[in-house]
Amino acid sequence: MRILWITALLWPLFEVQFAFAADQQSAAQKAATATDWYLTGLVSAAILLVAVAALIIGLRRVFLRREHGSLNNPRRLLHELCQAHGLSRRAERLLRKAALALETPHPGRFFLEPELLLAAQNCEQLRGNRRALGLLFERLFGENAG
Fold this sequence. Notes:
The chain is mainly α. The protein contains 5 helices and no strands. It is rod-shaped. 10% of the residues are buried.
């Protein structure tokens, strides 16, 4: 009977000890969970920073490419040459058409080589545009295509 009384008196102490141990274990679990959340937040922030940096670099490249344009683009070169010489869009299209008829990959050569423009004027595919090509020749080189 004495053992029963002793266990009955000590039982609350055991309960307190088990509760304290469980609370300590719970605190350790909470600390581990908090550490996991901290690491997850840290990794997420790093990934977000990398994504934002990649987005900024990508947008910068797109805008700079649009601003500067391609460095080796015959079509753009023709457009800029036509603008510099005060030629219309219609003249630009005619020069592109003449380049196709003469199988010239770089239509900007018309501004440097008058014989190309004369060859285009004599081309059968462009016979409907002979007068316009003659006027272009006069405008670019200051003399009659003759």
